[in-house]
């Protein structure tokens, strides 16, 4: 398949790195932090109880589903209050969480493929999560990062895709969105008028009844190969001068 790609929007969690190990580490880091700074909170909310509280906060606050940082602070505030701890601990606890959240372990192909992709077209990070590319250490590969929290709405809402296209100064039809999630990434992008690439690392069967991805690969390396076969290398010096 061949079509024009002038820019790429790229999902982060479960596209560049798996999120499950990060989530498990966050839970343990927070529990250990509370054990040192608020033992009463750690005793009342062991890992499983804190996870249950976080899931309830998510269910009870659908208006904040685009803002995972706000939801995390709600969870921490409730745990501190209920255990009789000072809310002065809220921001230090959040910082302990956020430091752990930005410690990622990439898929083996991810970094090399990302560099190859960014050599061909501008890449914008487009994520419902709250990773910070500066902290993660790969911001130099991206034109910008647009998160659901900053935008005010999450994928698969069309508005976040279209906002990224506007910042890239590209028509949606010339932007390829790349991600792992069938609904949030592929279907959301397609409905907004973008091209879509499904990164299907587990080789699942495509099950969406109405939408088919324009491209489908099990690795980002395969996407980099496709781009190199179809696009000239970017003149990055010209990009920067512009």
From TrEMBL:
GO terms for molecular function: hydrolase activity. Keywords: Hydrolase. Pfam families: Hydrolase. The keyword Hydrolase applies. The keyword Hydrolase applies. InterPro entries: HAD-like_sf, HAD-SF_hydro_IA, HAD_sf, S-2-haloacid_dehalogenase. This is HAD family hydrolase. The lineage of its organism: Bacteria, Pseudomonadati, Pseudomonadota, Gammaproteobacteria, Lysobacterales.
């Amino acid at each position: 398949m061949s079509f024009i790609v002038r820019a790429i929007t790229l999902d982060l969690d479960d596209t560049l790195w798996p999120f499950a190990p990060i989530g498990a580490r966050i839970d343990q880091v927070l529990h250990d932090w509370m054990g040192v700074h608020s033992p009463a909170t750690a005793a009342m909310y062991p890992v499983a109880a804190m996870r249950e509280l976080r899931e309830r906060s998510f269910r009870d606050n659908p208006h904040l589903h685009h803002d995972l940082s706000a939801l995390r602070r709600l969870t921490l505030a409730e745990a501190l209050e209920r255990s009789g701890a000072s809310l002065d601990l809220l921001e230090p606890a959040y910082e302990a969480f956020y430091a752990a959240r930005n410690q990622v372990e990439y898929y083996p192909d991810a970094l090399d493929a990302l560099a190859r992709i960014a050599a061909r077209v501008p890449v914008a990070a487009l994520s419902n999560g709250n990773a910070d590319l500066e902290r993660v250490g790969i911001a130099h590969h991206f034109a910008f990062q647009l998160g659901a929290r900053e935008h005010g709405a999450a994928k698969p809402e069309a508005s976040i895709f279209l906002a990224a296209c506007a910042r890239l100064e590209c028509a949606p039809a010339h932007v390829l969105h790349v991600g792992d999630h069938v609904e949030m990434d592929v279907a959301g992008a397609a409905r907004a008028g973008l091209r879509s690439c499904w990164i299907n690392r587990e080789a699942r069967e495509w099950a969406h009844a109405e939408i088919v991805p324009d491209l489908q690969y099990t690795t980002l390396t395969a996407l980099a190969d496709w781009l190199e076969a179809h696009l000239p290398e970017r003149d990055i010096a010209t990009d920067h001068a512009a």
